[in-house]
Structures are given as structure tokens and as C-alpha cells.
């Protein structure tokens, strides 16, 4: 008999879980305290990246997800999916050297990375500031409309029998004798289930804590700026290499306001004839109201790399809460002590990109099929998470 | 000023005229007028094109609220022509419809 | 003017000038996505996401909300900048003249 599954959270992760589970014949109820995608999935950009992933598991997971996404793009109705590849641009010679090493590592692992020297980067990106010394390109990276993608996953899940309940908060996951029994709603109703998937992003810990399951997911606020429609500055996504410098144990050289708010250039052109500018990082902040200082810092960083953007018009800003984890890997995991409990959260800035592989893996774990990727690095009880103490070093 | 179709008020005004540029073409306006009104008087109603539909657009609210009159003035895009005062030598340009993204699949180019 | 605003379905009625959305397009999106908030409707249609940021189309959205089935759609957030600003101006703000 098909298992009864409740997926808590109709963001991109929960929707992908509902999609793959419904496709596989499970009886799914997708539930959200708000609208479909009303959390972080509608307060983000549409990046699907391998360019910034460590060679190894990180990269493998990202690539697998990109492949699954490419399949989904041919099966689901349109969601502005394009695969132009992405660029990282270097601020200075130090970063150029690190970028050379980075590309070398990636190419050794067989990934479609190319190092672009001074002549090449300016040939690819003619709008770039002339002092940029180098950059790199990753051919498999893509972009999409995140909320539309989430909606398409939900629509398809519904076609396979998934029930969707919106504006209904789950107050408690009901556990009986070491196994999930269902979820309790605000009005006291209990929905029964054999399996509960917690895909509630930054809200996941408060659902899991009462069960004695501690998952150190915290909000890491990020801002985005929206331009008016008009001339674009290139068709592919461009980000700055600087924020990867910590992976090399090197210090990043950047202006004080950029460092304070974790600002790193992200340029993302969209099909609506406008572009988004990001990004920023502030750990532990729950308020999604944009802060003008951060908006300004992002604008200034964009001008450093694209001096021609002086005349571009900014019409809006917004902010979302990335679900951060101490080791920057999500939690996609059963919980051994509680039968039927599955966690799928903590994707910190990669939720859109990793939704497809997460949904597939959750389906594999739930239905006890061979997992599409090795699930061990994503366990909720891995040492990096269990040993983390509040107030420890910020990742 | 014969030939100028202002429609608002009929008395002749004594304002001095200035020459400014619409897409590189010399046109005249009266000192103190908003760009959109100088153009209106000259019979130029199309101030640009809608970025999504390509349809011509022009003055709508005329009070600086709606941005239908957005033009590139003195090199700065998205200026409200209904508010921006003309002056001698001002460069006014209609904003063309932006072209669509050309790169859809970088992987196929590699 | 005490008359109720009557907005009839028509592809000739443009409800969002900035994004060039017709009433038909809104109705189609309502049927396809069944949004449960104005924000959701905005996100799936781009209604209110253009350069005027809803200044012209909000009264139409309000008329839309008057229809019983849409009564609880909520409001839209206003975010800075409250009028469009060039990136150059943004970058220079706060600097001493």
C-alpha cells in the first residue's frame, strides 16, 4: 500500500519532494503555513551553480541536481529555465592566482570549467571594469524563475494526486512509540501519516526541537536589488570570486562595507528584460525587510565591476533567509530514533539548485530505493552538526 | 506661437524658446516646460515603447506618478519627461525596446 | 463617484501598464495557479512588479479584491527605493557633497 506522506513546507525543497514522491506513487499531502513558495523560495535569485562547489561530494551533488533539473525542464511547463553557464570574476591578482588553482582542481575532476585570462574575460564580458585581471566560466550552470519552478513542481505533483494545504501551520509533529503518527494543525486537527518530511527551511528547527532532534539551521539573510527593464550587461550570470577566498584559507580584499555585510557581486539577467543584483550575508537575522546600508553596499560593489551601471535604474529591493548550516551542506536524512521522520532542509543559498536531487533522494529514502547519491554526508547526526555549539565560529 | 497645439490655455505666452534634441533631431520648447509637453506641442506623442509588448507609449498621468513617459534625458534613463524641464541643448532619447536574451544554452556552444 | 468599479474580462483591458498585463492574462493566471494572496498573484503574473511598483494598478487590484472570492488576498509590501533611483546616485548617497 502506498505510504501516506506529509511534506511540511511548500517551498522549492518541499515541492520537489512532493513531486518525486507523488510520481513514485506515494500518497502525499503538501502543507505550508503560507502560500506555495512564500518563504525563502520567493525571496531569492534563480541561480543553479556548480561553479562555487568544492570538487568532491559538494560538486557531485550539484551536478547531479543540474542533470535532474535539465530533465525537469523538458517535462514541466516553462519556468524561464536557461543554461547560459556562469562566470566568476576576480577583483585582483591574488584572486586570479586562486582562481587558476580552483579551475585546475575542477578540471581534474572532469568538470566543464575554463580559466579566462585578462584578454579572455574581457572578450566574454565586455561590460566589465577594465582592471579585472581574470575570471572563470562553468558551462553547466543555469538560471530559472524560482517561484515559477516551485509552482510547476506543485502543479505536477497535484496531477499525480498530491493534496496541497496552504495557510495551515503545523504546530506539532505527532510521534507515537518511536514512530511518526502525523501532524497537528493550529485548530487542533491531526493529519495522519506514515512519513513526515520536514522541508520547512529556516523554520525546521522549531518543528524538530520538541522531538529532541537538534538541527543547527539558522537564517542567513541575503539582499537582492531589482533593476528596471532596459539594456542588460550580458546574458549570463556573473559573480565575484572573492567570497570563495575563504575556501583557500586566504583573506579577501574588499571594501569595508562589503566585508561587513558579506557582500559579493551577483549579476543575474532575467527574461523580464531586467536584472537582479546581489548578494549579502548576515547570520542570525530573521527580519526580511531590506536594510538600506546593505542595498547601498551591493550597489557599490556592482559599480566596481560594472562601471557602466551608473545609469541603470534600481526599482526595488528585497531580502530572504537562507537556511544556513555549520558545514554548508544540507540535511537530507532519516532520523534513526523516529521511524518515518525525514529531514530535508538547510540548503543555504543552494535550495533552488539542489531541489531536484533533494526531492529525488527524499523519495529514495522514504521508499527505501537505492539512493541517487550517497546520503551519508547529509545525515542529521554528522559530527559537524552534532559538535557545533551556538556562538561558535561563523561559517 | 502659431502651429503649437497646447490645448491648455489659449493666450500666447511670452516665454523664450530653447532648442533641444529628440533622438538627435533639433526641436524647440519653451523655457520652463516639461519635455513631454514641449513634445506634445510639436505633435510628438510617442515617448517610447513598452518593453514587454513593443507598443508605443506616451503621457498617461502627466504628474510624475506612472512612469509611462520615461525617457533617457541627459544620458540618464527612466527620467519622467512630464516633470523634466527643457533647456538649451538637452539630449532627449526614446528608449528602444530591449532585445531578448540571446544565450539560452551555453553548453551547446562549448 | 459612488459607482462600484466594474472591471470586465477583456483582452483589451490593460490592468498593469508597466508589464503590459491584460485582464485576460490575470484571469488565466488565477485559474492556473490559484494564488491565495495578492503577493502570490503578483509573483506569478508580475502584476505590480514594473517600474511604477503598483502605483497605477493597485486601485485595480483593490477592485479585484472586492469580488467576494478574492476578499482575503491581503496587501503588498512596499520596499525601498520608494521611487526609482540610478545606481550611480545610490552609490554616491551619504557622501559629503
Automatic annotation (TrEMBL), chain A:
Record key words, sorted: Oxidoreductase
Gene Ontology cellular component terms for the protein in this record: cytoplasm
GO molecular function: oxidoreductase activity
PANTHER family found in the cross-reference section: FAD-DEPENDENT OXIDOREDUCTASE DOMAIN-CONTAINING PROTEIN 1, SARCOSINE DEHYDROGENASE-RELATED
Residues in coiled coil: none
Organism in which the protein naturally occurs: Sulfobacillus acidophilus
FAD dependent oxidoreductase domain mapped to chain residues: 5-365
Designated name of the protein: Glycine oxidase
Signal sequence extent: none
Listed Pfam families: DAO (PF01266)
UniProtKB/TrEMBL annotation, chain B:
Residue ranges crossing the lipid bilayer per the database entry: none
Keywords: Oxidoreductase
Pfam family membership, one: Fer2_4
GO molecular function, one term: iron-sulfur cluster binding
Organism domain of life: Bacteria
Protein's recorded name: Sarcosine oxidase subunit alpha
Record organism: Sulfobacillus acidophilus
Amino acid at each position: 500500500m502506498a505510504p501516506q506522506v506529509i511534506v511540511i513546507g511548500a517551498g522549492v525543497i518541499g515541492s520537489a519532494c512532493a513531486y518525486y514522491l507523488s510520481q513514485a506513487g506515494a500518497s502525499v499531502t503538501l502543507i505550508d503555513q503560507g502560500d506555495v513558495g512564500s518563504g525563502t523560495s520567493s525571496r531569492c535569485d534563480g541561480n543553479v551553480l556548480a561553479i562555487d562547489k568544492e570538487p568532491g561530494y559538494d560538486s557531485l551533488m550539484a551536478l547531479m541536481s543540474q542533470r535532474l533539473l535539465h530533465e525537469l525542464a523538458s517535462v514541466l511547463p516553462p519556468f524561464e529555465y536557461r543554461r547560459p553557464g556562469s562566470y566568476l570574476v576576480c577583483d585582483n591578482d591574488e584572486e586570479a592566482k586562486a582562481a587558476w588553482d580552483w579551475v585546475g582542481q575542477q578540471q581534474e575532476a572532469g568538470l566543464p570549467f575554463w580559466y579566462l585570462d585578462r584578454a579572455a574575460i574581457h572578450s566574454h564580458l565586455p561590460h566589465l571594469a577594465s582592471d579585472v585581471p581574470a575570471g572563470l566560466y562553468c558551462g553547466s550552470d543555469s538560471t530559472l524563475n524560482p517561484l515559477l519552478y516551485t509552482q510547476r513542481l506543485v502543479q505536477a505533483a497535484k496531477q499525480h494526486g498530491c493534496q496541497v494545504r496552504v495557510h495551515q501551520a503545523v504546530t506539532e509533529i505527532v510521534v507515537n512509540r518511536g514512530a511518526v503518527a502525523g501532524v497537528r494543525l493550529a485548530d487542533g486537527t491531526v493529519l495522519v501519516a506514515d512519513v513526515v518530511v520536514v522541508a520547512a527551511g529556516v523554520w525546521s528547527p522549531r518543528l524538530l526541537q520538541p522531538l529532541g532532534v537538534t538541527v543547527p539551521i539558522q537564517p542567513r539573510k541575503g539582499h537582492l536589488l531589482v533593476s528596471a527593464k532596459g539594456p542588460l550587461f550580458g546574458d549570463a550570470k556573473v559573480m565575484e570570486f572573492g567570497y570563495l577566498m575563504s575556501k583557500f584559507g586566504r583573506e579577501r580584499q574588499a571594501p569595508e562595507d562589503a566585508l561587513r555585510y558579506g557582500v559579493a557581486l551577483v549579476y543575474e539577467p532575467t527574461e523580464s528584460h531586467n536584472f537582479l543584483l546581489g548578494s549579502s550575508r548576515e547570520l542570525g537575522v530573521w527580519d526580511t525587510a531590506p536594510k538600506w546600508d546593505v542595498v547601498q553596499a551591493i550597489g557599490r560593489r556592482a559599480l566596481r565591476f560594472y562601471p557602466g551601471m551608473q545609469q541603470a535604474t534600481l526599482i526595488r529591493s528585497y531580502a530572504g533567509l537562507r537556511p544556513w548550516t555549520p558545514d554548508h551542506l544540507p540535511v537530507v536524512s532519516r532520523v534513526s530514533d523516529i521511524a518515518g521522520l525525514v529531514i530535508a532542509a538547510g540548503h543555504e543559498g543552494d535550495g533552488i539548485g539542489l531541489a531536484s536531487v533533494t526531492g529525488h533522494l527524499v523519495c529514495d529514502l522514504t521508499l527505501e530505493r537505492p539512493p541517487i547519491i550517497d546520503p551519508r554526508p547529509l545525515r542529521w547526526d554528522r559530527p559537524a552538526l552534532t559538535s557545533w555549539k551556538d556562538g561558535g565560529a561563523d561559517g | 506661437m502659431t502651429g503649437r497645439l497646447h490645448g491648455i490655455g489659449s493666450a500666447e505666452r511670452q516665454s523664450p524658446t530653447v532648442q533641444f534634441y529628440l533622438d538627435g533631431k533639433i526641436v524647440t520648447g519653451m523655457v520652463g516646460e516639461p519635455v513631454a509637453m514641449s513634445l506634445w506641442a510639436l505633435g510628438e506623442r510617442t515617448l517610447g515603447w513598452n518593453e514587454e509588448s513593443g507598443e508605443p507609449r506616451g503621457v498617461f498621468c502627466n504628474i510624475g506618478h506612472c512612469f509611462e513617459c520615461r525617457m533617457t534625458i541627459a544620458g540618464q534613463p527612466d527620467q519622467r519627461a512630464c516633470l523634466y524641464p527643457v533647456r538649451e541643448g538637452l539630449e532627449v532619447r526614446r528608449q528602444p525596446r530591449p532585445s531578448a536574451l540571446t544565450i539560452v544554452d551555453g553548453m551547446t556552444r562549448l | 463617484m459612488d459607482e462600484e468599479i466594474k472591471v470586465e474580462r477583456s483582452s483589451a483591458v490593460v490592468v498593469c501598464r508597466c508589464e503590459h498585463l491584460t485582464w485576460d492574462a490575470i484571469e488565466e493566471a488565477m485559474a492556473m495557479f490559484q494564488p491565495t494572496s495578492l503577493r502570490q498573484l503578483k509573483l506569478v503574473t508580475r502584476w505590480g512588479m514594473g517600474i511604477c511598483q503598483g502605483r497605477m494598478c493597485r486601485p485595480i487590484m483593490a477592485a479585484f479584491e472586492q469580488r467576494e472570492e478574492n476578499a482575503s488576498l491581503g496587501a503588498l509590501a512596499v520596499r525601498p527605493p520608494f521611487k526609482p533611483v540610478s545606481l550611480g546616485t545610490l552609490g554616491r548617497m551619504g557622501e559629503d557633497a
